Amino acid sequence: MYTRRNQRNLTRTEKRRLIDALLRLKRTGQYDEFVRMHADFFVTDAEGRPRAAHMTPSFFPWHRRYLWEFEQALQSVDPAVTIPYWDWTTDNTPGASLWADDFLGGTGRAGDRRVMTGPFAHGNGGWPINSRITDAGYLTRNLGRPADPISLPTKEDVARAVRAPVYDASPWDSTSRSGFRNAMEGWNPGGGERFGNHNRVHRWVGGLMLGAASPNDPVFWLHHAFMDLLWIRWQRAHPKAGYLPREPLHPAHPHAGLVFGLRDPMPPWDVPPAELLDHRRHYRYQ
Fold first, then answer.
1. Contact (Cβ atoms closer than 8 angstroms) between residue 283 and residue 1
2. Which of 9, 71, 75, 116 is 20 to 30 A off residue 172, Cα-Cα?
3. What is the C-alpha to C-alpha distance for residues 240 and 247, in angstroms, rounded to an integer?
4. CA gap 57, 185 in Å, rounded
């Protein structure tokens, strides 16, 4: 059992050890393997093939396993390292501590959005972008999108999603109008804001966080650790409401065979959501 902590509470030494472990995984090529995995499983609900990671009920359990696998890789380098979480409802400006030069570095420069500060800046030589959908080989960000400003989700945005009494609902995709999963994943069908919560955070960071290869930016892991924590908070608020759908979809359903029920093994690990509902054997949050 180990503890994931709020990034704002990390000591200078803890930050340094996390950065060193990330840089080591990058040098060995393991980091880019995780980036490619996420890109491979970023399947939209318009593609007509099984989707385990996004626009689907298994969004939360898939990413829980994905983060846990990555955390094991970090701990193979330094057993004391865990993935911290970024509470973007509180640390919600480009001046927040995680964007400091001694941690993740700041926003990108005007024009090409290239990050110039911190240990992951291309100029420091340790963070080449090898798994990408652009030709740029450097980390990019556009924190807050100054030319067309957006804000990060608020505590009330999160609370509204956590109040949802059911986990997910048909049609089990980006158009689901009820349920915790889509309220938190943030595909808003209709309404004024197209993207909410999780999706809005990706857009607020900008740069490489916008695409399927978003783990190229190390902040991805801190963001999704907070998403994992929010799932736990929903589970605690609704102890009798479990993962849905419990059974495979009826063959007549338009998403039959594309959505993972409670006991359907998810790729690439062949682990069903049922085995990922309880995190407490591995870690806790502080």
1. yes
2. 71
3. 17
4. 10
pTM: 0.96
Which residues are bridge partners to 6 per DSSP? 85
Q: What is the CATH number of the domain that holds 58?
A: 1.10.1280.10
Measuring CA to CA, which residue among 78, 87, 124 is closest to residue 102? Answer: 124
Q: Torsions phi, psi of 271, nearest 5?
A: -115, 130
Give yes or no for a contact between 207 and 129, defined as CB atoms under 8 angstroms apart.
Answer: no
- Work out the burial of residue 227: count CB atoms within 10 Å of its CB; fewer than 13 is exposed, 13-18 middle, 19 or more buried: buried
**Structural domain count, the chain:** 1
Residue-range definition of the domain harbouring residue 61? 2-285
pLDDT one-digit tens code per residue, 67-117:
999 999 999 999 999 999 999 999 999 999 999 999 999 999 998 999 999
Residue with tokens 């420069």: 109
Q: Which two tokens stand for residue 101?
A: 């030069």
Shortest CA distance to 172 belongs to which of 271, 65, 245? 245
